[in-house]
């Protein structure tokens, strides 16, 4: 878990990520941790963070798209 912590810390230093991406990474890490404990494979935590990051990017793009559509309606 220490390696993943350093990776997330480096991402935080390099640039501020939106809250949707951080939340998705956290959820992915927790789900990956649960699956890793059941299966006994530690790399599943990293996979969970990776899929959480991808899901967070998609979620952030959806949020921005909804904001853009809403701002066009209010003009």
Reading the helices and strands in chain order gives HHH
Share of residues in helices = over 70%
* Average of per-residue pLDDT values: 75
Assembly form of the protein: single chain
Shape: elongated
Supply the helix-strand structural class. mainly alpha
β-sheet strand percentage: under 5%
Task: Give a topology summary.
Elements (H helix, E strand, L loop, with lengths): L1 H13 L4 H21 L3 H31 L2
Helix pairs in contact: 2-3
Summarize the structure.
By secondary structure, the chain is mostly helical.
What would your notes on this structure say?
The protein has 75 residues and is mainly α. It has one domain. The chain is 87% helix and 0% strand. The protein is built from 3 helices and no strands. It has helices at 2-14, 19-39, 43-73. Helix 2 runs antiparallel to helix 3. It starts with a helix and ends with a helix.
């Amino acid at each position: 878990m220490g390696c993943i912590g350093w990776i997330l810390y480096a991402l935080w230093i390099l640039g501020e990520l939106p809250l949707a991406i951080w939340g998705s990474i956290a959820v992915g890490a927790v789900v990956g941790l649960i699956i890793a404990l059941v299966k006994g494979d530690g790399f599943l935590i990293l996979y969970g963070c990776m899929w959480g990051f991808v899901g967070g990017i998609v979620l952030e793009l959806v949020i921005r798209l909804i904001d853009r559509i809403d701002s066009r309606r209010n003009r």
